[in-house]
Amino acid sequence: MDARENIYLAVVGAGSASPEICELAEAVGKEAALRGWILLTGGLGGVMEAAAKGARGVGGMTLGILPGGDRNQANPYIHVAVATDMHHGRNAIIALTADALIAVDGEYGTLSEVAFGLKLGKPVVGLMTQWKVSGLLAARNPKEAVELIAELIESKRG
User: Fold this and answer.
1) Half-sphere exposure of 70 (CA within 13 A, CB side)
2) For residues 30-51, b (16+ Cβ closer than 10 Å) or e, as one string?
3) Averaged confidence pLDDT in the chain
4) Domains of the chain, start order
5) Looking at residues 99-109, what average pLDDT do you find?
6) Cα(56)–Cα(70) distance, rounded to whole angstroms?
7) Is the pLDDT of residue 2 over 70?
8) Which of 49, 77, 86, 117 would bridge 56 by S-S if both were Cys, CB 3.0 to 4.6 A apart?
9) Under a CB-based contact definition with an 8 Å cutoff, are residues 35 and 13 in contact?
10) With 90 as the cut, is the pLDDT of residue 59 above it?
11) What CA–CA distance (Å, rounded) separates 35 from 21?
12) Strand-pair partners of 8
């Protein structure tokens, strides 16, 4: 596959998260990678690191869009790090680059990524999210979240 055929799934969430939330994010990353998808995150810790760890652990490709100007800030599970020096502005790049997004828990930065994704017409699924946002679909577990994204992408491709 080339870059035009690959599915880029953004897994978004807090840079500092509980072990339970990180476990969910890791499972999402693994499920996405097992489908051959490229995992896209903000490249730092917490949910981002856990999702990348899950993907990389099963041979998946990981891409980190970093807030700072130093690629070396990326977590150790990121294959390709993009230093933006845009801080929270990089959330728009994440949403634009992704074909779909899964938010795992999260804070205001995550909510901004959800909003950008929805504004751009991307499928967005929430796992353990606290918000009631029109267009944000809820999943009960990582497998369901990834399956829902797969169905939504397939229906868009028609």
Assistant:
1) 3
2) bbbbeeebbbbbbbbebbbbbb
3) 96
4) 8-93+114-157 (3.40.50.450)
5) 97
6) 21
7) no
8) 77
9) no
10) yes
11) 22
12) 38
CA distance 22 to 50: 5
Give the pLDDT confidence score for residue 1 in this predicted structure.
60
Long-range contacts of 124-133 (CB under 8 A, 24+ apart): 124/100, 125/100, 125/101, 125/149, 126/102, 127/24, 127/28, 127/102, 127/103, 128/21, 128/24, 128/104, 129/103, 129/104, 129/105, 130/105
Q: Any idea what the Cα angle at residue 105 is, between residues 102 and 111, rounded to 5°?
A: 70
Calpha distance 149→12 (Å, rounded): 14
Helix, strand, coil percentages, rounded to 5, for the chain:
45, 20, 35
**Three-class secondary structure of residue 63 per DSSP:** strand
Furthest-apart CA atoms within the chain: distance in Å: 40
Asked if residue 52 lies in contact with residue 75, where contact means CB atoms within 8 angstroms, the answer is: yes
Amino acid at 137: L
Beta strands in 55-157, from DSSP E residues, in sequence order? 62-66, 80-83, 100-104, 124-127, 137-139
